[in-house]
Structure prediction request, 348 residues.
Amino acid sequence: MKIGLFGFAGGGKTTVFNLLTGLSADTGMGGKSKTNLGVTRVPDDRVDFFVGIYKPKKTVYAEIHFSDMPGEAPAKTTSGLSAQVVGDLRTMDVLGLVLRAYENPALEGAPDPLQDYQNMKSELILADLQVVEKRVERLRKDHSSPRELEALERCLPHLEDEQPIRTLGLREDEQTLLRGYRFLTDKTLLVLVNTAEDDPGATFEQLNERLAADSVTPITLCAGIETEILELDPEDRKAFLADLGVEESGRERFIQEAYAALDLISFITVGEDECRAWTIARGTVAQRAAGQVHSDIERGFIRAEVISYADFQEYGSEAKAKSAGRYRLEGKEYVVADGDVINFRFNV
Ligand SMILES: Nc1nc2c(ncn2[C@@H]2O[C@H](COP(=O)(O)OP(=O)(O)OP(=O)(O)O)[C@@H](O)[C@H]2O)c(=O)[nH]1
Ligand SMILES: [Mg+2]
Prediction:
């Protein structure tokens, strides 16, 4: 999964990026135009459990790839999101908007995360609106793709009404027609509120109300102090986090909350060669899930051999789970459950 961190300049994007990846990219202002790239491994007890059983040659955890984008100047002084950032964001699965809720001495004015959110939301809508307007104009003239035009004409008033495409309820066939546009407002938006250290549990009532109305769950971080805490040895780290009133580090909390907000689950493939976690959206059917492993397996899908994680744990081995009748053969429409251990049968 690829998450793009973006937002206004000096909002703490790179600090958040460092917290989430454990890297130490340069922070502070300075008109940087470089995007930082980093990967975070998603901790998973279940994978650890199977590693204990299979002692595989290779272990692969789910990963989140982060791109930390250069900051945008405050909305009032610019014509919008830069073309570079828009282009980068289009390649992401999830957009992570970092909002500043701490005093930054390098910037004028008090933090105003609600205003920043609204400005950035408008920028995203505008970026899509420009694409749709241009394309609609063209298709109305050359009549080359009436179905696509129809779908775009449904998006147009919705965007003009300042609504994101994700709330339009596009049908499956419309989604397929429009997939190539990679609309920003059709992607899941995560909002990361970066707060001040003296106010780690701050509640931002108006912001939260606004976000709730937009069906966006905010994730609150205190990235500045938490990146410093990461440099301490583990014992001190716990004590400092407890002081901050948080039990888990921002990284773990982010991963949990992001998985919940995005409604993601994992299935697991096991064996002596490799134990591996795969991330899918809840509700994904077996044949589609197989495509994560390889497109050939999706195409040639025959059956999924499934043992639930709970059964595997209870019986301790594949053979024992099987003889207890806990081994299932599922078809292509089977809805994969979190923690399912799957072996796909396929034929190409
Ligand atoms: N007090 C406080 N300062 C922070 C926090 N997070 C970041 N900062 C500071 O804010 C400044 C900007 O942080 P960056 O992480 O570089 O912000 P950015 O959004 O990446 O900035 P650009 O890439 O220039 O847009 C730095 O001086 C950070 O140390 C925080 O949670 N609290
Ligand atoms: Mg930065």
